[in-house]
Amino acid sequence: MSEPTILDRLAALDTNTVSDALDFLQLKGATYGLRPLWDCPKIVGRASTVKVAPKTDATPTMHLLTPVIDAVTTHDRVLVISGGTEGISCWGDIVANASKTKHIRGTVIDGVSRDIDGSRDAKYPVYGRGVTMISARNRLVQVDSGTPLDVAGVTVHQDDYVIADRCGTVFVPAARVEEVIQLGERIDRRQNLMVRDVRAGKPVSEVMHDKQFQAILDGSETGSASSSSRNPKQASPEDQELSALFADSDTAGVSDALDKLGIPGQAFGIMPLADYTKVTVGPAFTVRYVPASNPPGSVGDFIDDVAVGDVVVIDNGGRTDCTVWGDIMTQYAGIRGIAGTVIDGVCRDVNRAIDDEYPLFTAGRWMRTGKDRVQVGGVNEPIGVGKVHVQPRDIVVADANGVVVVPRDRAREVADVAGKIEKTEAGIRELIAGGATIAEARERLGYHLLQRRG
């Protein structure tokens, strides 16, 4: 069997691990905001760089990108495009199909794409900032190729290495790729040992201690597993009672009840990682992160104190430049019966959370670690998440629509109002199914008063 190539070895890693390796080596390469534009697979390859810019005259030109696509002769290429203009497409379905025919592995755009369904139908991976319907024709032109680009704050050279997955896009300098991959492989082995330990119930405060991360640089691959995985922190009877009040509710109904009672509780901009079919309910275990000190403090030890059924609610000030939750925390939280996690900030290792069906609600996702960038500033104290004030043990309700926070001392009142609202809406749906008009049904059951205060 032949030795794995550089691309094979890079493909065996993920963007989180590669980002960590770049961090250890103090190299820039992780970008924020360049995400899959359809549910496309990971791409790994070498950059063919293209720069576009606004068209400044009426002279007819070839469609941008076509010369670069036509010139491709190998099967390791990823098109990397910079210079995109907000709202103007620099990618579409025709060039996606042409690229697929040329065995190009995918495209990363520091800009937006249109015809994204066409790229999906062609099974052609596209990563970028978003989608649009506005054509580049007579608006953008190709101005250069094969030259260094600025892509989301990272300088990318022709033939640099590219890896992109659900967490985002990372570029690796070609001159350092062997070093980055070797360290990435070491990080991956160490993290697998750490996951094994948390699966066995070893305290995460020990598993994620700084000495474990130092072992990555030292090259130590040893690990130990302990036996007990049961969470000794059990939910109190009152926690169970208050959570049960919302078991048959959803965030829409609870939000309406909060509005009717004049209680602010809807967490703005905090969205589910996936379209969860179940509602997550539990008391808030609050965590506040702050910028790291020198030397840096703890990032995840608090989780050993979280009880069964709690929802971890993290205030990272809405930061999107570093994460505070990853696969080890997901694995450990699931083992210990923690209900879910809400973050005013970003998470990483999203494949683990999605595959494990662990509920995560965040302001986004990215792959760069928060280690040595942030640290825990306090636990079980008042925090702010998505412009909502959260007290420890407030009741969190979260689902595919987002997150609401119910003050603990008003939980019974809110649950009662939410139940009445949901019962009224069920009655309206029943009347409509029986032939009534929406206006008739709403009038009969007082729909317009449901959310009104008073």
TrEMBL record:
CDD domains attached here? Answer: RraA_family
Q: Which GO terms describe its molecular function?
A: metal ion binding
Keywords for this protein: Magnesium, Metal-binding
Please name the InterPro entries in this protein's record: RraA/RraA-like, RraA/RraA-like_sf
What is the top-level taxon of the source organism? Eukaryota
| Disordered, as annotated region | 220-239
**Residues involved in Mg(2+) binding:** 349
Cofactor(s), by name:
Mg(2+)
Q: Any idea which positions bind substrate?
A: 326-329, 348
Membrane spanning residue stretches:
none
Q: Which SUPFAM superfamilies match?
A: RraA-like
Name of one Pfam family that matches: RraA-like
Indicate what this protein is called per its UniProt record: Ribonuclease E inhibitor RraA/Dimethylmenaquinone methyltransferase
